[in-house]
Every structure is written in C-alpha cells, then in structure tokens.
Amino acid sequence: MRLVLLISLLLFYTHTYAQPQGLRLEDYIYQEKIKTVLLYSALDDPETPTRLLTPPVTPINNPAPLVLEFDDLSGQPEGYRAKIIHCNADWTKSDLNDIEFTFEFNEYPIVTYDQSFSTKVPYTHYRFELPKLKLPGNYVIYVYSERDRKLMISRRFMHYQPRVSITAQARFSQGIQQQFSDQQIDFSVNYKGYQLNAPQSDLKVVMRKNFRFDQSKTNFKPTNVRPFDQILEYTFFDLENTFPGGNEFRYFDSRSLTGRGYGVNEIERSDEFTKLWLFPDKPRTDNAYIQMDDFNGQYIVDQRESGRGSVEADYTPVVFTLKVQEDPEATFYVNGAFNLWQLNERNKMTYNPDRQAYECEMLVKQGVINYSYTIVRGGQKPDDAFIEGNYAATENDYDILIYHRPPASRADLLIGYRTVEWNRRR
User: Fold this and answer.
1) Residue 16: which pLDDT band, with cuts at 50, 70 and 90?
2) Residue 5: inside a domain, yes or no?
3) Binning pLDDT at 50, 70 and 90, where does residue 13 land?
C-alpha cells in the first residue's frame, strides 16, 4: 500500500500539465480589468517607489523573494492562482517537469489582497511572493482565475547562478556613420572553473537595452578564444554589438492630484475620475540632444500625500498628444514599461484633424511615468527613432545574460549576468 501511495505521489508531482490555451510566454495582460502588473525584488519597505526600477533578475539563492503585484478594476475580489513555467534561452518551454525546478506543488493560491482606499476608481490590489526555485534560468509566472481558469497575466523573470564572470564596457559605436547615434558593448566571459566542452559554441549570449525584450540581440559567437586563460572575447567589428542610442524618455508626474505635476497641462475633475491632459509633444529627431534625468523607460507607482501607492494611488485617464502630420501608412503608439512595452489597442493613437495631432487616452495609476512614441509602418519592426531620434550620448542601461545547457541536461540554465551603464549621471 505504501509503495502504491509513493508511486501515486510521484506521478502527481511529475505530471506535466498542458499549457493553458492562449498562454503567451512573455509579459502580457489578457483581461482589460487587470492593470499595473509589477514584478520586483522584495525590499524591507514594500512601498518604496524605486523598487520597481530594477528588473526581475536575481541570484538563485537571493534571500529576498520576487514579488508580483497587480490591480483588478472589476471592484470585486476574486480568487486567483499562479503557476510557474521554466523556459529555455529563447523563451520556449523547457522539457523539465515541475518537480525538477520547484520545491512544492506548482500551483499557488494568491491570498494577499487589499481594497483601494479613498480613490475615485475602485480596485483590488493583489500581492504574491514567488516561491524559491531549484534551478537558474528563464521563468514565466502566469495568473489565472480560480472560477473559470481564464488567464489574467503572464510575466517573465530570471534567476541566475554565477558560474562564469563577465567583464563589459559600453562606448560610442566604432561605425563611422553610427558614431553619433549608436552605442557599442564589448565584453568577455571568464569561465575558469566551469567546464565547457566546446567554448566556441557552448554558450548562448543575450544582450538587452534598458531591460527590454523588444530591444535585445542574441546569437553572439566569441571573436577570440583563449583556452589557457579560459576567456572568451566578444569584440566585434561588424556592428553586431551596437544598439541605437535612442533618446531620454519623456515623463509626467501624477503623484499628487491637488495640482499639476511635471508634464501635466490640464486637470479635469469629475465624480468618476480625475483626467489629466499632458502638454502636447513634438518630434525630437531634428533637435540637438538634451540631457535630462529619466528612468530609462521604467516608472514608479506612488501617491505623494499618503506614501501608500499600492492601495491609495488613483487611476487617472491620461491624454497623450503628439503634434505631427498625419501618416496613413503608419500606426502610432505611446510606449513604455507602464504598458509592458506592448503595442496594442490600449496605447494605439488616433489622428485628430481638428488638433492636427495624434491622441491616445490611457488609464494610468498615479506615479512618475516614462514614455516615448513608436511607429509601425507596414510589416516592419517598431521604430522609436522616427519620433524620438537616436543620440549616442543618451544614458542607457544594458544587461548581458549567459546561458549554457550542460551535458545530459534538458534545459538552458542562466550561469552569468552583468549590467552595464552608459553615460550614467550620478
């Protein structure tokens, strides 16, 4: 009898559940009622606004857990559960069973929630501390409804185990035509003490700009292998490791609604909401580079009067205006981490012929919000530079991720991580 029970438990924990239909292994919001999805490393003070500015990439043995937060604007608390998926370097689902990367049953009830307080737009704020996991690598956590199992959100995060060290340097691009617009990242990997059978091809390297998956590069191969020193050098001459500099992000400050914060042109008050009209924006491609502080596209949630942004920050309709000639061949978007860098109907702009400008109204939680403008023309990739321009002096953050699949392993593991700052002002 005991043997039968053990076998049943083993089958229960190693069973690989099918992915829910429609699940996307990326940062995504599936239901309109879900807003402000946050994932960050926990701090002593859960209301520290700057906790949101670092990416969810932590050492596998980090004592502070990652924390997931989100708001439900339906007005009624609902039962939610979370599940975690281990992914390969290319964000496809790995072949690992749940028991190989989790310490407990991989289905977690989300039981911590609070109702919003003194806000015109009511919401329920949920908070969930992610469990510790066994293996480094890429992960996706997704949340679904207990009632009908509908998907709510999915968010990417990463744990790394530092088995190799990375030395990196950011500088102006070596390209003659790109030296005033692009930035270059040279780096090397020291794998001393870590076994590689084929150093030239064993590692998978990913570089991201400002922690954005939509601005990442991969498929790097070392330009020089030093087997005696156990060092791989990645110094390219064909611009493989260069990124357009972009521009400093625009931003507005809505932490207090008693008066107009930075970037806010007009406040419209009603019983239902407080609506913000931002100052009209213009293209910046023909202007000289202007130094200004920003969050590199990230944002913070905060309510200045109470300091409890999680439940006392209100949701405000925000009207973005871009003064530019109509272009029927292009689609314009307001872009930023506050919308998970997704280009969809929420942040799509429409042309107003009366104002001769593109406009977009979005419901945004109070805080300091970075944003920029992006266009998509035909089937081409999104283009930030069309409105914002590219400047080599722009302050940016880059991170480098090193993956390896050990012999006999069935998944890519994250064995090295390094962030690189360019032109950071202290």
Assistant:
1) very low
2) no
3) very low
- For residue 132, the number of C-alpha atoms closer than 13 Å in the C-beta half-sphere is 8
Task: Specify the DSSP element, H or E, that contains 4.
Answer: helix 2-14
Residue 53: phi and psi, rounded to 5, are -90, -10
Query: How far is Cα 170 from Cα 396, in angstroms, rounded to an integer?
Result: 10
DSSP H or E segment with residue 189: strand 182-190
Write the DSSP string, 212-245.
EEEEEE-----SEEETTTTEEEE--SSSTTEEE-
Domain holding 227, by residue range, is: 165-245+394-422
Tally of domains in the chain: 3
Q: Which of 201, 217, 199 is nearest to 209 (CA)?
A: 217
Q: Which of 131, 124, 244 is nearest to 184 (CA)?
A: 244
Q: Which residues contact 113 (CB under 8 A, 6 or more apart)?
A: 77, 124, 125, 126, 127
Q: Tell me the C-alpha to C-alpha distance, in Å, between residue 385 and each of 88, 283, 289.
A: 31, 10, 13
Q: Which amino acid is residue 74, in one-letter code? A: S
Q: Kindly state whether residue 3 falls inside one of the protein's structural domains.
A: no
d(CA 65, CA 130): 6
Residues 210 and 329 in one domain: no
Helix, strand, coil tally for the chain in percent (to 5)? 10, 40, 50
- The 10s digit of each residue's pLDDT in 312-345 is 999 999 999 999 999 999 999 999 999 999 999 9
Rounded distance between C-alpha atoms, residue 88 and residue 156, angstroms: 12
- Cβ neighbour number for residue 62 with a 10 Å cutoff: 14
CATH number for the domain that contains residue 401: 2.60.40
Q: Are residues 224 and 288 in the same domain?
A: no
Work out the average pLDDT over 14-34: 83
CA distances from 29 to 36, 40, 186, 217, 273 (A): 10, 17, 35, 24, 23
Q: Is residue 397 within 8 Å of 210, Cβ to Cβ?
A: yes
What whole-number distance in Å separates Cα of residue 133 and Cα of residue 65?
10
Phi, psi of 380 (to 5 degrees): -80, 170
Q: Is residue 153 in a domain?
A: yes
Please classify residue 57 by burial: count the beta carbons closer than 10 Å to its beta carbon, then call 0-12 exposed, 13-18 middle and 19+ buried.
Answer: buried
Asked which of 160, 183, 200 is the last residue of a domain, the reply is: 160
Q: How far apart are CA 89 and CA 79, in angstroms?
A: 32
DSSP 254: -
Strands 396-404 and 203-209: antiparallel
